[in-house]
Amino acid sequence: MKKSISDFLMDSGMHPAQVNMDECSSALVSEMRAGLAGENSSLMMIPTYFSAEDPIERGGKVIALDAGGTNFRAALVELGESSVSILRSDVFPMPGSRGAITRGEFLDEVCSRIEPLLSEADRIGFCFSFPAEITPERDGRLVGFNKEVVVEDSAGMMVCAEISRRLEQRGAKRPAAFVLLNDTIAAMLGGMVSARAGDTIGFILGTGTNCCYSESGSNIKKLDCPSGSMVINMEAGGFAKLRRGRFDKELDAQTANPGDHIYEKMVSGAYLGKLILLTLQEAARRGLIPAAEELFARNELDLVEVSAFLEKRKGGVAAEAAASICLALIERAAKLSVSVLAGIMRQTGAGKDLPATIAVEGSVFLKAFSFREFFDKYAHEYLTRKLGRSYSVLTLDNMTLAGCAAAASMTAGQ
Ligand code: BGC
Questions:
Q1: pLDDT tens track for 4-22
Q2: What pTM was computed for the model?
Q3: Which of 35, 307, 323, 359 is buried deepest, with most CB atoms within 10 A?
Q4: Whose CA is nearest to atom 7 of ligand 1?
Q5: What are the residues facing 182 on neighbouring strands?
Q6: What is the largest CA-CA distance in the chain?
Q7: From ligand 1's centre to the CA of 5, what distance in Å?
Q8: What residue ranges in 81-228 does DSSP mark as E strands?
Q9: Ligand 1 pocket check for 147: Cβ under 6 Å
């Protein structure tokens, strides 16, 4: 990277070298502990009432639903003894992602996706990429939609119970089991049914970001569950004890929820493109890259476009200067996400005896240009060399659908 660009990123507090992985992972551990104790914390640390040790009953078909920021998937999954088969999988736009809808409209749309599958299976695992408080029955009380999905009056909705009631009202049969699980838990369980070794961390880095892991009951001070272990949905995107740069703050001020989801806004697909755009615009104002008209005409930049630009660039001084800014912010995102995983491993001791499995899904992790190389570099440098932990990264097709099937099959085994 040219010195002038490096100085600019340093002055703005956006340089990857300004992320201190020790400091960041220690701050995460403190926030995790505060969240587990029910004290003030930027991490919700949501108990899920799933234990990584619960037996999973295999065999039989299960309906797997997957609600994300953009898509809603409805699938029929069969969990065999040693394999997972996706018998059918249909993708629809996420209800509420193309303009506000009412709670009733949301419920009807979801029911209409479930009904054609109910003749095949009566257990449902619902992978939900939004914060929800999980009840001991494994239903979820919605905290609120995010990632631009708008469903009026939906906060507080008991998701599975309300959908079941609506199904009955519509003349369909009530599912025998219906469980809600965060997408991180679905990735974790999907990873566990496919490859089991040591502790598994569920990690999503796509439109949004989040992690889950297995915590020992005695550490979950806000619950009365001293024995065994329970999977915790950290809502890690909310992590706020981070040093932010100038453009992190500018971007945050322009979002619908300023001050919220600080970490998510530094690393995830919904924001990283825009963060790169703001940084490029200022670099152009300072004459570090050409002040192209198109750069200033834009208000949004998709990370997919950034990756395409980085892939296709053919050298040239101007392209290289812009590329080095894009790469620096992708590198910073990778370094931050390794720091978060390091915090989890420090809290749990994962990777000390057996290698920890990091079960990952998400477009930034899987597709953003060079993200994986940066991730591997920092994971090696910090997790392996500094902390002395071993780990393996697990990415599988349909991991979250398999996780939904596993979750619904755990309930059946109770
Ligand atoms: C949501 C989490 C989710 C994550 C990854 C965040 O915006 O709050 O519940 O796990 O995105 O999809």
A1: 999 999 999 999 999 999 9
A2: 0.94
A3: 359
A4: 208
A5: 128
A6: 68
A7: 33
A8: 84-93, 123-128, 132-134, 140-142, 177-182, 200-205, 209-216
A9: yes
